[in-house]
Design a protein that fits this description.
Blueprint: H1 8-18, H2 24-36, H3 41-46, H4 49-52, E1 62-65, E2 76-79, H5 82-95, E3 132-136, E4 139-143, H6 145-157, H7 166-177, H8 182-189, H9 194-203, H10 208-214
Antiparallel strand pairs: 1-2, 3-4
């Protein structure tokens, strides 16, 4: 029995209840990208539109995450489902109609008129999400603080206060690890060891005593 990961109902709740108003399409796309694309939040934050579509504006089903963005410093091939491609194209139809910063556009009839600087994810000011810097021993580490805050707000709007932005990545890992070799899943997410996936998967299994107590837990024995 798995706990503390997203189910279909959780994602449906996020898409229907947490996303509303003039940025509904944008926020729904954000949820979809987090739910289907095997990236860390930092990697999500750095994606550019040109990486996900061809010159005609059609979404790729497979594309390359450059090593410069990747958590392990290596290029990774990312494969996504058709439902994600449909969501991306719907979102980009909305995207190009917005009042974007000038540097996000170009005058060529390619990539929907969007330049190589156009980020995939837009904040509520229609700019890319900025990264905050933190000094570490190896130099400067950049954190997706603003994007994380946005995701946490959407989770709160849906009443999913137990979840965090990291829950999207962990949920996708665990769902894939049910049916895919853990080494393959590790490579997909840029982890150096299959054991990291196995630990995440096993760490979400209930202890035997908890599993036993959860059986028919909604049925009350009092008065029977």
């Amino acid at each position: 029995m798995i706990r503390q990961i997203f189910t279909d109902d959780h994602i449906r709740l996020l898409l229907t209840c947490a996303c509303a108003g003039k940025f509904k399409i944008k926020d729904q796309y954000l949820i979809t990208q987090l739910a289907y694309v095997p990236l860390s939040l930092t990697e999500h934050n750095q994606l550019k539109v040109h990486q996900l579509i061809d010159v005609h504006g059609h979404a790729y089903k497979k594309w390359l995450l450059p090593g410069a963005y990747s958590r392990n410093g290596k290029d990774r091939e990312i494969e996504v489902p058709e439902v994600f491609c449909q969501s991306l194209e719907r979102y980009l139809n909305w995207y190009v109609e917005q009042e974007l910063p000038k540097e996000f556009r170009h005058n060529l009839n390619t990539y929907l008129g969007l330049s190589e600087y156009a980020p995939v994810l837009l904040n509520d000011r229609l700019h890319g999400y900025s990264m905050s810097e933190r000094v570490v021993k190896a130099g400067v580490n950049k954190q997706p603080t603003n994007l994380r805050a946005k995701v946490n707000k959407l989770l709160s709007n849906a009443g999913l206060d137990w979840a965090t932005a990291k829950t999207f990545e962990d949920s996708l890992i665990i769902h894939l690890a049910k049916n895919v070799d853990h080494g393959v899943v590790a490579g997909l997410f840029g982890y150096n060891s299959r054991q990291m996936v196995t630990d995440k998967y096993n760490g979400n299994l209930l202890q035997l005593s908890d599993a036993i107590n959860s059986i028919y837990s909604r049925i009350k024995a009092n008065g029977l």
